[in-house]
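Protein: Cobaltochelatase subunit CobS
Species: Variovorax guangxiensis
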Amino acid sequence: MTDITASTPDRLLSVRELFGIDSDLRVPAFAERSEHVPDIDSVYRFQPDVTLAILAGFMRDRRVMVQGLHGTGKSTHIEQIAARLNWPCVRVNLDGHISRLDLVGKDAVVLRDGQQVTEFQEGIVPWALQRPVALIFDEYDAGRPDVMFVIQRILERDGQFTLMDQNRVLRPHAFFRLFATANTVGLGNLNGLYHGAQRLNHAQIDRWNIVASLDYLAAAEELAIVQARVPALADEAGTKLVRSMVAVADLTRKGFAAGDLSTLMSPRTVITWAENVEIFKDVALAFRLSFVNKCDEAERPLVAEYFQRCFDLELKESHRLAVS
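Structure follows.
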């Protein structure tokens, strides 16, 4: 493993060769991996437009926000690009428990030569800012106001960060990169799906150079991912089964968009359903345990109708499958 503090990108990689995108762009990368580089997921599917947007962040130090519904793989998309570039990457979830002190740092009592002394311990922001790290703020629209104003400082063009308690001004490392993911674009919990999502002030959103929208994959791509995760369903019978599962998921998404459902099936849910099919050998039981029981009781008849339409089976019955 390399020393992350001293390392810098030392090669340029072809976007066409690395991601299969028709582009002449070349992106900086590290020759060696460090402990902060994510593991490569060989079955992850990249969406070209979003990939190019994220790559612009790595190449030109653009602040990139990726917005999309849950389960679309927003954070994973950034991490998997970083994994292929051997770029150190740190992910911070801005839930309600993350405080300003967690980001900035705080005084802590430590032992030095057998004596208790008080010293300042850096938070994640100054630590990452001084290193060639891609810092991802997950659930960006769920952050507390005091936390968001800390982040706003490093969204400026020069990105300087002042540690008030230390009377220090930190200048970002030349290869520090900043990303965020969000379910909304700072407009709050308009549809009731994302409780805790905050309205962000326009000055905050305006500081993000690029906002990419990540949607669910095409049916064929989603089918391929499910089969890669659950190889037992990769045969002819499994392909037919998974295709119907993806069709059910698509109907729930359309039902959600039309206002008929208050929840939907993400690709993550479909994978969970497939894994549970492998366990229980029963597509209906696995569906109930994976998704139906999460739905509002008033909406379950509609979900059952989607299932019946795609499988030509009644959801209330048990349907044993021969899954190897």
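Remarks: Confidence is low (pLDDT under 50) at residues 188-196.
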